[in-house]
Specification:
alpha+beta; five-stranded antiparallel beta sheet; 7 helices; 26% helix; elongated
Amino acid sequence: MKKVFVIMLTGLMIIGTMGCATENKNEFVVAEHESVEAISEESLDEVTEEESTEVVTEASSVESTNEGKRASKEGNELFQQFLNDELEVDGSTFSEIFAEGIDFAGIPRAYYIDLDDDGEDELLVDGFYYGWEVYDIVDGEIKHIDGGCGTADNVSIKKGNGHYYVAHTDFMHSGRRFMELVRFDEKGEVIETIYIIAIYEGQDDYDENSTFYYYEGDIENAYDDANLITMKQYDDYMDSYVSLEESEFKSAWEE
């Protein structure tokens, strides 16, 4: 039974690692906030010239506030344009791509960090549901290089072995704990992939009798017997990759 479970799990992970579609992830949602209530003609007739000036000034201030955040001037110019809806990526603006999250929670968190050690920052944007969406600039264009795909594929950023990794994790489903660590080069190409996996079918959590794997390479070979490890080794590997705090990122928005 355990072997059947592993085969099924392998199939699910292969599908997951193929990635989600990055184009037009969400339909554009028009913001419904009104900046200033309309002033009736009757009210305008009653206002003095001085009062009218005060109303216009107040209205302008509110309208400016409701425009939302602006990209930090410290960031890459292309990323600034993308964040400010002045540039499309894969045919959609920033507000269109993250429309659903914006509608529910406002402008998403966005940060800069040099993930690939090339001296240039990449852009992280909170995808609202499944962790970070990761963007890089490749050959003068913004490229979406990675992101979360579902409850079985939540994306965070981890550090270990002197490198940053995009971590794809599934800690939400019973019977397994799955982590894929991906490292990219300056072209947005994958140069290292690590799998750390625990399987404990029919249990609430793993123990010494569970099955553990550690593998560097393609997912198809991750479940080979040659990659079996002990629970202690599993715990040590998991502890060696640390999630970054947001304070370690550089905000992509103006403070």
